[in-house]
Write a structure and sequence with these properties.
two-stranded antiparallel ribbon, 32% helix, elongated
């Protein structure tokens, strides 16, 4: 019988025991969702949140 490898995944402070391949996949998903590491490696800063300004009405030449 094949022995499955397991790993711990923490949700907050709650430990959950999952198959290692599922834990690895979860970490990949979290890495894609958290862009902090990508921004750090590309030496970029987060854009500041701005409020929309009034839009000027478009004028068309007919």
């Amino acid at each position: 019988m094949a022995e499955e490898l397991f790993g711990w995944l923490f949700i907050g402070s709650i430990p959950l025991l999952y198959e290692k391949k599922k834990v690895a996949r979860q970490f990949q998903v979290e890495a894609w969702l958290d862009l902090t590491q990508v921004l750090k490696e590309l030496e970029l800063d987060k854009a500041e949140k701005t409020t929309p300004t009034e839009h000027k009405p478009a004028s068309y030449i007919v």
